[in-house]
Design a protein that fits this description.
This protein is α/β, with parallel strands linked by helices. Helices cover 43% and strands 12% of the residues.
């Protein structure tokens, strides 16, 4: 595949943001922050690790369902991540200082309480994300009740380019053409965030909530508990959001949003599609299903 040029990346990002601006549930200041963070990600060039230096699962263990590399073992350059953390904090502060910033102003006002420019706080938050330490983020939410997801958002946004680079390094050790029959990412072991179904291929792909990998999944099963009985698998949709469905499971009560690209002329990237389909989350929750993973952009 030929890599897109920076100009093409910028044009695609602006096209995607224009689509998101048509969603009445996404405030303009929020999308301004999102656009600036994504532009920062595009400018970052993390160095991928050497595959030989990673504590990988054996081929036999991976064939049985073990992820190639546990999320807590993903190597990161903390210096690069701290710099990204500071820049993202500055993006929020700048947007929050504008008169029309609305909810972003609350985020900016919350930042001093987290001491977000402290390297110690940044390191603690990013290490908590790598270890999936819910206690840390619960405590951080108590410090900033107006913005309970602020610390998690900053940590995830600061680390995202590096996590994706590690995942790309792992790619040669996993066959993308073979459906992965387990309820977690084959690279890092994290649950999926969203999915997409390609009608022409008859294949379903899931996007990992941690490393961003898109991997081929078993589309006839619950993405999480792997329930296969059609009686326990429910599909929901809304005429207001064509091209995306909710796939819910009566056994584990979890759901995943799955986009149907053949019904959408220009489908959004998975992380942005998650934002564009937020009303489907409310629909799923009214039906008694719960979301397993948090939005990558949950502010």
């Amino acid at each position: 595949m030929v890599a897109e040029s920076p100009d093409e990346d910028a044009l695609r990002l602006e096209r995607d943001l224009r689509r998101l601006r048509r969603c009445p549930w996404l405030p303009r200041p929020y999308l301004n922050v999102l656009g600036d963070v994504l532009a920062l990600h595009a400018a970052m060039r993390p160095s991928p690790p050497a595959l030989a230096d990673l504590p990988l699962a054996s081929p036999e263990a991976h064939a049985m369902g073990a992820p190639l590399l546990l999320a807590c073992d993903f190597p990161v350059d903390m210096g690069m991540a701290r710099d990204a953390w500071k820049r993202i904090g500055s993006i929020i502060a700048e947007e929050g200082g504008r008169n029309d910033a609305g909810p972003i102003a609350g985020l900016a006002a919350s930042m001093p309480r987290l001491r977000l420019h402290s390297p110690t706080v940044a390191d603690d938050a990013m290490n908590a994300l790598l270890r999936d330490d819910e206690t840390f983020f619960a405590n951080a939410a108590e410090i900033t009740p107006e913005a309970p997801s602020l610390a998690r958002f900053l940590a995830g946004a600061a680390l995202a380019p590096q996590l994706a680079a590690v995942s790309r390094t792992l790619a040669p050790r996993h066959d993308p053409d073979v459906p992965w029959g387990h309820g977690h990412c084959p690279h890092c072991g994290s649950p999926p965030l969203v999915g997409r179904h390609l009608e022409a291929e008859g294949a379903t792909w899931h996007c990992c909530s941690f490393c961003g990998l898109e991997y081929r999944a078993a589309g006839d099963a619950c993405p999480f508990c792997l329930e296969r009985s059609p009686r326990r698998l429910k599909t929901l949709g809304s005429p207001d959001i064509a091209g995306t469905q909710v796939h819910g499971c009566a056994r584990c009560k979890a759901y995943l949003k799955v986009t149907l690209p053949h019904m959408t002329p220009h489908p959004l990237p998975p992380l942005l599609d998650d934002l564009a389909t937020l009303p489907l989350d409310m629909l799923a929750q009214r039906e008694g299903f719960g979301r397993v993973t948090r939005s990558a952009w949950g502010l």
